[in-house]
Amino acid sequence: MNNNPQNIIQLQAPMVAEPEPKINNQPRLDNSPSQPGKKRGGGIKTLAVVGTLVLFGFLGWRMLSQKQQAAAPKTTTTTSSYQLVQAATVKTGTLQQTMAVTGSLKANLSVDLSAKLTGRIAQVFVDEGAQVRKGQLLVTFEDDELRSQVSSAEAAVQAAQVQLRQKQVQLPATSADIETSIQDAQANLASAQAKYRQTQLKQPAQEQTTRAEVETARQSVQSAQIKLAQARETVVQTRKEVEASIAQNDAAVKGAQASAQSAQAALDEVKRGSRAQEIAQAQQDVSVLEAQLANAQTAMDRSEELVRVGASAQSELDTARTTRDVYKAQLEAAKQALSLKQEGSTNEQVRQAQETVRQAQESVRQAQSTLDQAKAKRSTITNAQRDVVNAQTTLATAQSNLRTSQANLSNIPVTRQDTQIALETVHQAEAALAKAKANRANVPVAREDIEAARSSVRQAQETLRQAQIALANTRVVSPIDGVINTRTAAPGQAATAGNALMNIVATNSVYFEAQVDENSVRDIHPGQSVQIMATSISDKPLYGTVADVIAVADSASRQFRVRVSLDDKSRRLTPGAFARGQIIMQSVRNAMSVPEDAVRQDGSEKFILAIAGSGDTSSAEKHVVHTGLTASGQTQLLDGVNTGERVVVGNPLLKAGDQVKITSG
């Protein structure tokens, strides 16, 4: 008889299905012993069939439970001689543990170009997204009127310079003539006085008096020389102090003007608020993140179902849940950013910006007033120079007196007639000297005319410089190498000073900024290698290094920012693009590794089941091992195996010594 349970069930089935004989409702009158005997035999058969079905149902349930407990891609099929298993080879290579992050590309340098003058735009040479170089011409303004102003200013400078040269040429001649006439008059007076004194010095007493005069005159010369040296030193010191004060205050005026311009630009920016393009971009960011969050939620739900039925590891579900949470936090931040851009600037911000502009303008006025006061002090230099002239005159007079006194010693014998004639000559010489000195008053007037002409030249030069600056401001060039991010300027558009023209982002300073949760940021530090994928730019990976970890979390998302420097010599990266990164947390070279499912554990002891033998069937051999790094589904083995050995993967019910056969695939 066949012992197959299925065959048994098939043979017994007709007995179960056989209908029982029909029995009348009338009482049986026949008491034949054959009737009761037949009825008892049918009941026994029925019980046997039911018992057999229950037994084989229990055995089938037991076998199904053992298959479900295996939880492997391919369950082992137990036969009378061996079990089917999957095997992996022990490999040696680099094992890396990575952390997945997401973020966006950003730039360290972004420049807003604005108009420096009020006028009409003539040409715009670039569009949004264009690559530009430093110094490249971007925008020009209409400049016909400014060119005319520059020509007029140049002509005014030339005219002022001609007038200055004429006055400078006239001054030496006028001054020399006056000084010559004064010196001649002084010499004539000295000679006349000497002759007059000679007529008086006829006696020894007069000689003694004359010697005393000589000594007094010598002391006067020495005193005049000292005063002249002091006056000259005063001129030098005064000029240094005045010029230093002017230069310092001029720098203060320029600094105050720059602050006022910055404050005005800030006020214009506050009044303008967020542009429609920025609001549209923020709305687009929200839409993208909503789609990404929906995809992440779907992936997490799928992972939960796979983990529930035992077809996936718990780590994959954790990764899907983390990705879902990251997108959820980013979506919340994007919605808040959109709300802020839609609300715009508050009245308080505008008022504060206006107050800053007013204070900056007041600082300019005060600095200009101080500068004007410093320039007014130049008159002290003229006063000091006048003191030098006076000291020179005093010295010349003292020297002349000394020469006269010395001459008197040799001309004492003179007659009374000579004395009278000498006295008249002295009077005439004094009158001539007084007239010559009177002409000296014309010299300061001539000097003032020269200074006025020199001031006119400086004023004309400053007017020319301002006109040239205004003309140069009609050409707007790029201050950096980069990409045109936004452009608001258009040909024919009227612009005022401070109006925004375009924004340039430097492409040589693009970096990757990733968002990391608070549990992972402590494991990240500068110097770690990072692989980045920005699919909107290229399908090829980029490589970089962690440059900085911002130790301040975002108040809304509680995420930390990690900056990664990139090696982008081609400068093809676009700030604002979304990117994914893999931070290499740990790397082990020449590591022996096996699939994570190949490592088994019995209490604190870890081991693998190596496949011994090379035939159709082999045996499972237990090797105790010590493990190291686990990453990407692979576990590092520190000892217990050799490279190239085969180990069993999965089959948790397999034991050492069991006969196994390796499945294909």
User: Using DSSP, what is the number of strands?
Assistant: 22
Most strands sheet: 6 strands, mixed
What distance separates the N and C termini?
Answer: 40 Å
Q: Determine the mean pLDDT.
A: 78
Q: What is the domain total for the residues?
A: 5
CA gyration radius, whole angstroms: 55 Å
Structural class: alpha+beta
The CATH class designation of the largest domain is: Mainly Beta
Strand content: 15-25%
Overview of this protein structure:
By secondary structure, this protein is α+β, with helices and mostly antiparallel strands. The chain has 5 domains: 5-20 and 37-70; 110-142 and 474-505, OB fold (Dihydrolipoamide Acetyltransferase, E2P), CATH 2.40.50.100; 215-273 and 345-412, Helix Hairpins; 276-344, Helix Hairpins; 507-662, Beta Barrel (Elongation Factor Tu (Ef-tu), domain 3). Helices cover 54% and strands 21% of the residues. The protein is built from 10 helices and 22 strands. The chain has helices spanning 5-17, 34-70, 144-200, 204-272, 276-308, 314-343, 347-376, 379-410, 416-440, 442-472; strands at 83-89, 91-107, 110-114, 119-124, 131-132, 137-141, 475-477, 482-487, 494-495, 500-505, 510-516, 529-533, 542-550, 560-566, 578-595, 600-602, 605-612, 618-624, 627-631, 634-637, 646-649, 659-662. It has a 6-stranded mixed β-sheet, with no helix packed on it. Helix 1 packs antiparallel against helix 2.
